[in-house]
Recover the amino acids of this structure.
């Protein structure tokens, strides 16, 4: 079966996110002042061939650890859709 | 009240995603051959000051249209967490 798996990769909460800070500045310049913080990460959608949702999740976890996320700077969350 | 709003920005389904194709190639080189397609987008987490979840969503929508997403190449989905 084919599963759609979503991997969300975000910068660790302890780290500064300069890209997010730049976007926050941009929003304020545009007059959107009710946004108080911005953090930017990646969303990676995988189409995985697997026997079960659990297996699909394991494959995505393996892929995240080996390639998609850098554990020094990022954490990831996996959702099977 | 402070709301955490998540904006997912993905390349339009009709468009080729070269970054995703590169990651797919990388996964196959690593021996992960059960992944059949990869698409890569952005996750943007906003902290929004608003009176209600609906208002927070509207602010995020406004921000997405004005700055976060490029409608020529991307679509966005908003979730109030």
């Amino acid at each position: 079966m084919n599963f759609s798996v979503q991997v969300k990769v975000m910068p660790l909460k302890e780290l500064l996110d300069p890209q997010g800070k730049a976007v926050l500045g941009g929003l304020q310049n545009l007059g959107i002042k009710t946004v108080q913080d911005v953090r930017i990460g990646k969303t990676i959608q995988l189409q995985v061939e697997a026997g079960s949702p659990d297996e699909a999740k394991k494959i995505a976890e393996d892929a995240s650890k080996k390639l998609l996320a850098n554990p020094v700077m990022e954490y990831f969350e996996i959702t099977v859709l």
